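Example S7 (structure tokens).
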């Protein structure tokens, strides 16, 4: 059996004394596109950050491809939730994207031609080549999302952890970004996206995880997870309001 792309055991995370994830266990297989779902405040962003030790957990272990994060850093990409990023940081779109390649460089090595080319190709892929020299503080919401998408593409990881990549993007951009994700899946990449639009989950996600009440409520192939009852437990509203378009 192939190892899981991500394996989480007994993960408990608290902010001060407020426990937001309690003994979470989760295993996601390689090659799937997983929708990480749950109400606002359910702990989706926290789950991703704690897995990467950006928010040190109180307890628990996480492995990627059967190894600790530090051993496989370059294979794991992370796109933070745009709302949680300091966009006033003085840097250009190009340098932000180029930074995505740094994990693949050794210590004390500077980016060279292959890294510059990867950054350029990633900008082209998401259609923002013309913004390369723009300060990131001067981008629209959708352009910020594309910048972060380009950064994770430039890194070229095997596992993409993406926190709300579609937040604030228009319909045309959402379609274009979805095609990029489908293309990645077809290359065998593993993708986890925090997503709020339940109506589109089944269009491109093969796996789903529902978070609620500090726990994983349900995890598995999208058809099995996407039941009215489980959605009701995750979102706490009447199942008929959650009926999905296909
Ligand atoms: N830095 C922090 N300090 C204190 N509490 C926090 C912090 N970050 C998040 N929380 C709290 O932890 C809980 C989980 O937050 P988290 O950001 O993980 O939720 P989420 O599922 O990503 O929500 P959303 O859909 O709104 O992005 C929330 O109750 C939130 O208020
Ligand atoms: Mg979040």
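Recovered sequence:
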């Amino acid at each position: 059996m192939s190892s899981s792309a991500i394996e989480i055991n007994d993960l408990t995370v608290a902010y001060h004394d407020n426990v937001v994830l309690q003994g979470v266990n989760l295993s996601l297989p390689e090659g799937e596109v997983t929708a990480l779902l749950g109400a606002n405040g359910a702990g989706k962003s926290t789950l991703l950050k704690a897995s990467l030790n950006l928010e040190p957990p109180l307890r628990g272990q996480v492995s990627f491809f059967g190894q600790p994060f530090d051993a496989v850093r370059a294979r794991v990409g992370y796109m933070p939730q745009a709302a949680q990023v300091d966009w006033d940081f003085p840097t250009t779109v190009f340098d932000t994207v180029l930074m995505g390649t740094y994990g693949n460089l050794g210590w004390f090595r500077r980016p060279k031609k292959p890294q510059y080319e990867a950054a350029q190709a990633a900008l082209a892929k998401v259609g923002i080549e013309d913004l390369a020299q723009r300060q990131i503080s001067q981008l629209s919401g959708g352009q910020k999302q594309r910048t972060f998408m380009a950064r994770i593409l430039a890194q070229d990881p095997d596992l993409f952890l993406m926190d709300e990549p579609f937040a604030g993007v228009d319909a045309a951009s959402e379609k274009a970004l979805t095609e990029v994700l489908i293309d990645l899946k077809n290359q065998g990449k593993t993708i986890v996206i925090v997503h709020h639009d339940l109506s589109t989950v089944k269009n491109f996600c093969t796996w789903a995880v529902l978070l609620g009440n500090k726990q994983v409520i349900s995890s598995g192939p999208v058809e099995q997870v996407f039941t009215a009852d489980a959605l009701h437990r995750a979102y706490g509203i009447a199942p008929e309001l959650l009926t999905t378009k296909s």
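Notes on this example. The first strand starts at residue 6 and ends at 15.
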